[in-house]
Every structure is written in structure tokens, then in C-alpha cells.
Design goal:
Blueprint: H1 2-16, E1 21-33, E2 38-48, E3 51-57, E4 63-77, E5 79-84, H2 105-116, E6 122-127, H3 135-143, E7 151-154, E8 158-161, E9 171-174, H4 177-190, E10 194-197, H5 203-216, E11 219-222, H6 231-236, E12 241-242, H7 255-266, H8 274-289, H9 292-308, E13 311-313, H10 316-322, H11 347-370, E14 373-375, H12 383-396, H13 401-415, E15 433-436, E16 451-455, E17 458-459, H14 466-477, H15 479-490, H16 500-512, H17 516-529, H18 539-551, H19 555-568, E18 574-575, H20 576-586, H21 589-599, E19 605-606, H22 609-621, H23 625-638, H24 643-656, H25 659-672, H26 677-685
Parallel strand pairs: 1-4, 5-6, 6-7, 8-9, 8-10, 10-11, 11-12, 12-13, 13-14, 18-19
Antiparallel strand pairs: 1-2, 2-3, 4-15, 15-16, 16-17
């Protein structure tokens, strides 16, 4: 408070010494002091270029090129979302930037950031993990901010230790501690300010990378939830920024021991969907609440975090959505596109989940009251809208509006060490501001009201897009309504001309989100609108969408989509497992076996051990044991040196009652991998 008042006096003295002309004046506002969490009435903000040049009493008047009458409205610093994935959230995770360069696709992706964040007042975002081929593109965005896009700061890829499995495109493996140090040095040389250490990083690799980051001046953000490194250990290694409030639980409980106990307490099974995983993270806080010893451990961790100045991001709307507690559904994963969580709980279990969520929010309030520095990190698609939902969730948990707005602004900027230029409204800081039509101090739901957003000293004007809005109309109103809306929108002067890249991205999002009928409709509109342009669908997207339909039992839709993909995307390779499944679906097991035998060495087919193994278990879980055995046998033919394929076939034979064949395959699995504890256990039983 004293700091801002002194700045006001200084600005008055400077201005009274001579006439000054400013580029933008925002007059007669209530100014939110993010440090003191108070509101200063009757203020005017004077902006020169992209910088706040003066703050005066509203009674003082100077010349400005443009004036916005605040009319006693509240003005706050721009919001900061400290955990986003700007590439993966738009369906680009498995693609390189080369796939987007045509038709201004890179520019289109950056414009999406404005639609998803800046439209809602989020003026700065921290990207917490992307495929490394995108670093040059997003680093260029970081170095060259514009008034039409949120500021972006990147971490590069999410660091994990070497594992014998396929990694997501944004997970970057380090082979050993020295390789981890080399990776830190290489990121520093490229100009990155941040790195993310992910939960699958083993302790020696984690410790080495945290140590090297200190030497290189890189800020580490850490997601720890695999019982490899705890938050307390991370703090001891010098890490202070941790991701997701729910990751507190594995820092006080060993999941191998307590996850089964938690499931037993609530009568639930291990998660089969990403939303069930998020819900189980909520259940864990009810589990902690039920045991004073576990609660005491949690409070001890809060005390250590507060004492050491550690920060913790929220991801609150995602877990609230899984528990049915948010006004706006979001998830950690976009596939399949949906508006409700993929969970299946009894009425009694839902009541227990409601109670556990109340505990989750109460613990967040206790952490804050103990001095743990909270910041908002939405980690989901549509992060800007989810951000506003998190503000309302904080209020429901008993946080004051002043605390909430501080968490949304200064706390995040301080954690990311960006508060020298942003996070408070002060002379000399960048003019990234939000002017609310309705005051959130009167009602927190007013964060949803219309806002005037100032970015880099200029009033931001949200853009409309036929291509992007078509997606929403198709999903909400159906295919025929979407087609009609598209034709009408093209004649509407409020929309700019439809762009190739935007319409192409809508097709991609719908396909990768599992909305096949809507995607086909959008594709047909794309081909009609741009007959000379090419849209390609790769084999990964086709396969993921197909398996989504298989799991949901949408087999007629699957047949339509698969035939459409074969006809329209002939250059895409074929995953062997899916091809075999379609042959069995169309005819019988023999047809699937014949297709496998004929194409096992065909370069147009992708023969992937994990895919075949997963398909075998899909059959096994559906009590189609003959099909499962056939698939597992194909996998052995393709990967005869893999222990896991024999383990899976042994399980299928055991399910079928063929104990001798089961024993034979488990013995083979154990011979290939003497550490296979599952095989040892089953053989002992046999």
C-alpha cells in the first residue's frame, strides 16, 4: 500500500513539473493493490508505449491519445496461468512444426492462444512441456511478444528418466545423471529460463539436473507423484516450484501401499479413464482426512513448504470437474471430446467423492493459511475459461477475494520470477491490465463478466473465427445445423473470411477428439471451400480415434470412419492391431490371422508390441478369449524375445482354463525376464 501511494505522489510531482502526453489513459478506476490485497479508489493510470508511466488521483487530468473512462470499475494486473501445454492442447502433440507451416498454420496456433487465454484476461502463460521440435517456434514467440497474444514463457520438454516404453512426444528421456546435466546446459544455451522435471525422473537424475539448473540460472518446475522424489526431497535439492495440489499425497503416502487401501475404503477400482484418475486424486484427500496420522504428515509438509518459500500450482478445475464440482468441465486429456467426466460411481460413492472434494478444498485453504504460496496452473484445454472457474472455486473454499486476485496475479509472477515487469500495477511495469465491467469484490461470479483487456499498453480486441466457432456449433447443435451456420456465417460481416488453417485445425481437433461424424462433416466443408488444399490425417490419429470407438462400443460409427479414412487418407500407414481387429469384425479370427501373416513385413503396416498387447486385453476384458489368444500369439510371432508377450498369452490361457499352456508361457516369460514377479506369483499358484 505504501509503495503504491508513494508512486502516486511521485507521478504527481513529475506530471506537475510540465505538460505530458500519454498514449492511453484509464481514468477513474478502483485499483487493485496485489501486494496489499486492497483496493485504492479514484485512481487514473497513464500509459506510454507498453509501460505504465504514471498513476495519479482521478482529480488530476493530463493529455492522452486515447482515454478509457473507468467509471469506477475495478482494474487488476493481467492474470498468469503457470501451467499450460500450448502445443499438445491443440492436437499438435505428435506433429512437427513443418506440418503447420502451410497456410499460416503456425500463426493460427498462436492466435488460438489469444482465444483460449487472452480473451479471458490471462495475459501471461507458462508452457510446461512440449515436443522439442516446437522449441524454436515457441521460443520465438517468447522473445517477440505482441499486443494480440498472451506472453508465453517455455520449459521445453518434460524431463523423464529412460524407460523401456514409448514416451509421449513432449516427454524427453535422459539416460543418466550426466546426460541430464547436458540437457540442462543445452536448454540454457538456447535461452530457456525454465525447465520441468517430471514424475518419472529417477532420484539420481533429478538431483543432478536440479543441481545443474542452479549453476545455469534455470528455474525448475517439478511434478512429483510417482514416489520417486517427494516434494520435501525436491525442496532439499533446491527446487521450489511444484505442480498440482494433488501431488501432495504421494509425498506423504506410498502409493503402492495406500492406493489399494484407499480403493478398499471407498469400494472403487483402479482408474480406467483419465477422469477416474483425477477423481481418485480427490478421494485420496478424503482418505487422509480419515486418518489423523496422515493429516499430521500433510500439515508437516505444509510447514516445510511455507518455511522454505515453496510454491504449488492448482490444477483445481480438472479435479473439480472429475468430482462434478465445477461449472465448466475440463480434463487432463481432450480425448474423447466430452462435457461430463468419464466416471461411474454409485450414489453412495458420489457422496463420498463430494465429501473428499470438500476435504481437498479445505486442505488447500489450510495450506494457504499456513503460508504455502499457491498459484494457478490449469493444465487443460480451454485454460482461460477454466482459470475463471478456479477463481470461483477458491471463493467457495473460503478464500477472500483479495487473496484470490493475488493468487491469480502476483503470486504466479513471483514464482516464475517475472514480477520485475508484471504482477502489480506500478509505474515502470508493463501495462497488462484487466478492467472489469462488474466488480468481483461484490460477487466472485463477476469474473465471468465482460472485461476490457489491456495488453502491452493497447486495448485488446478479441477476434472471431468461422473455422474455430464451427467446431462448437457442430458439437452443440449437430451436423446439419453446423453446415447451415457455416454458410450463414460466411455472409456475416462480423466474421473475417474463413481461413484454410483454421478450418483445417477444426477438422483435426474433431478427428483427434473422437467426434467422427462431426469431423467428416467439417472435412467435407473444408474440401468444398478449399478444393485445391490438402488435409492429411496420420495413422496415429486414425488409430486413436478408432480405439476410442471400440472402447465405447460404437462399432457402426467405427466402420463408417475406418472406410472414410481408408478412402480419404490413403498415405497414412496402418497399425497392425487395428487392421486385424477390423478384419475380425468384418469376418472372423481366421481373416485377422491371414491379414497379419500376409502383412507382418509390409512397410505400410506398423507392427507395435504395445498396440497388439492392448488389443489382446481389450478382447480379454470383453470375455472374447479366443480372439485374445489369437492376438497374443501374433504378438509372440512379431516379438519372440519379449517377456511380456508370453506373460500376456499365459494370462489368456489361464483365463480359458488351459493351465498347462498357461504354465508353459509363464515359464518362457520368466526365462526371458527373471525379475518378472507376476510370472513367479502365478507359477507358484499353478
Amino acid at each position: 500500500m505504501k509503495k503504491i501511494c508513494s508512486l502516486v505522489i511521485l507521478a504527481f510531482i513529475l506530471c506537475s513539473c510540465g505538460s505530458k502526453t500519454y498514449d492511453l489513459a484509464i481514468t477513474n478506476v478502483q485499483l487493485f493493490d496485489a501486494e496489499g490485497k486492497t483496493v485504492i479508489p479514484n485512481q487514473s493510470i497513464w500509459i506510454k508505449g507498453d509501460t505504465i508511466a504514471a498513476i495519479t488521483s482521478s482529480s488530476e487530468s493530463f493529455t492522452a491519445q486515447k482515454t478509457i473512462d473507468g467509471n469506477n470499475r475495478l482494474v487488476t494486473p493481467g492474470f498468469i496461468d503457470t501451467h499450460v501445454h500450448t502445443v499438445g492442447n491443440y492436437g499438435a502433440d505428435a506433429l512437427s512444426p513443418e506440418d503447420y507451416k502451410a497456410d499460416n498454420g503456425i500463426e493460427m496456433l498462436r492466435d488460438l492462444q489469444a482465444q483460449h487465454y487472452l480473451n479471458y484476461g490471462v495475459t501471461t502463460i507458462i508452457d510446461m512441456g512440449q515436443p522439442e521440435p516446437w522449441i524454436d517456434v515457441t521460443l520465438d514467440w517468447q522473445k517477440n511478444p505482441t499486443p494480440n497474444h498472451p506472453n508465453i514463457f517455455i520449459c521445453g520438454g518434460s524431463m523423464v528418466s529412460d524407460e523401456d516404453r514409448r514416451q509421449p512426444a513432449h516427454h524427453i528421456e535422459v539416460m543418466n545423471p550426466e546426460h541430464g546435466r547436458e540437457k540442462v546446459r543445452s536448454y540454457a544455451a538456447r535461452g530457456l529460463k525454465y525447465m520441468k522435471l517430471y514424475s518419472k525422473l529417477r532420484k539420481p537424475d533429478y538431483e543432478a539436473m536440479a543441481d545443474e539448473a542452479k549453476k545455469q540460472g534455470i528455474i525448475i518446475n517439478s511434478h512429483v507423484d510417482n514416489n520417486r522424489v517427494t516434494i520435501a526431497e525436491g525442496i532439499d535439492y533446491g527446487v521450489l516450484n511444484f505442480e498440482h495440489f494433488f501431488t501432495l499425497t504421494p509425498s506423504i503416502l506410498n502409493y503402492d501401499e495406500h492406493w489399494p487401501k484407499m480403493n478398499d475404503l471407498y469400494g472403487i477400482k483402479m482408474n480406467s479413464s483419465i477422469d477416474e484418475f483425477a477423481a481418485q486424486m480427490v478421494f485420496f484427500f478424503g482418505y487422509i482426512k480419515s486418518n489423523p496420522e496422515y493429516e499430521a504428515r500433510l500439515y508437516q509438509l505444509f510447514d516445510k513448504m511455507a518455511r522454505e518459500g515453496a510454491t504449488l500450482s492448482s490444477a483445481m478445475n480438472v479435479v473439480a470437474s472429475s468430482a462434478g464440482q465445477s461449472d465448466f468441465f475440463t480434463s487432463f486429456e481432450y480425448f474423447p471430446i466430452r462435457k461430463t467426466p468419464m466416471v461411474n460411481y454409485t450414489e453412495a460413492q458420489q457422496k463420498q467423492l463430494d465429501s473428499a472434494f470438500e476435504s481437498f478444498m479445505n486442505y488447500m485453504k489450510i495450506a494457504h493459511d499456513k503460508g504455502v504460496k499457491l498459484r494457478i496452473g490449469t493444465d487443460c484445454r480451454f485454460g482461460g475459461r477454466a482459470f475463471l472457474s478456479e477463481l470461483m472455486l477458491f471463493k467457495n473454499a473460503g478464500f477472500s477475494t483479495g487473496d484470490i486476485l493475488q493468487i491469480a496475479t502476483l503470486s504466479g509472477y513471483e514464482a516464475m520470477q517475472l514480477d520485475d515487469k508484471r504482477g502489480t500495477i506500478e509505474v515502470g511495469k508493463t501495462a497488462d491490465l484487466i478492467l472489469f465491467d462488474k466488480n468481483p469484490f461484490d460477487d466472485i461470479k463477476h469474473v465471468l463478466s465482460h472485461k476490457t483487456i489491456i495488453k502491452d499498453g493497447l486495448e485488446f480486441k478479441p477476434k472471431t473465427s468461422i473455422g474455430h466457432e464451427l467446431r462448437k456449433v457442430l458439437l452443440d447443435d449437430g451436423v446439419e445445423a453446423g453446415k447451415l451456420w457455416f454458410e450463414e456465417a460466411k455472409q456475416n460481416n462480423t466474421y473475417p473470411k474463413v481461413k484454410v488453417s483454421e478450418l483445417k485445425n477444426t477438422v483435426r481437433e474433431l478427428f483427434t477428439g473422437g467426434k467422427t461424424i462431426e469431423a467428416i462433416a467439417a472435412y467435407q466443408l473444408f474440401k468444398t471451400e478449399f478444393p485445391d488444399k490438402v488435409y492429411k490425417q496420420d495413422e496415429i490419429a486414425i488409430t486413436n480415434a478408432s480405439y476410442g470407438m471400440i472402447r465405447n462400443g460404437n462399432l457402426e460409427k467405427l466402420k463408417t470412419y475406418y472406410a472414410f479414412a481408408e478412402s480419404n487418407f490413403p498415405d497414412a500407414k496402418k497399425f497392425m492391431g487395428l487392421s486385424v481387429y477390423m478384419a475380425i469384425l468384418d469376418k472372423d479370427i481366421a481373416a485377422g490371422q491371414a491379414l497379419f501373416k500376409a502383412n507382418q513385413l509390409n512397410p505400410q503396416y506398423v507392427v507395435d508390441e504395445d498396440e497388439l498387447n492392448g488389443l489382446g486385453y481389450l478382447y480379454l476384458q470383453s470375455d472374447r478369449i479366443k480372439e485374445a489368444i489369437a492376438i497374443f500369439e501374433m504378438n509372440i510371432s512379431a516379438f519372440p524375445e519379449s517377456s511380456n508377450v508370453y506373460d500376456s498369452l499365459g494370462e489368456a490361457y489361464l483365463e480359458a482354463g488351459h493351465k498347462a499352456l498357461a504354465k508353459k508361457n509363464y515359464e518362457k516369460s520368466l526365462a526371458l525376464d527373471p525379475d518378472n514377479d507376476n510370472a513367479k506369483t502365478v507359477l507358484k499358484g499353478l
